[in-house]
Amino acid sequence: MDKMLATEDVMKILQVCRRTVWRHVKAGRLKADTSMAKDFRFKMSDVQAFIDGEFPGAGRPKSKSPSPATTPAPVPVPVAPADADAKRLRDEAIMQEMLGEDAQDDQ
Question: Which residues constitute the domain of residue 96?
Answer without folding.
Answer: 79-107
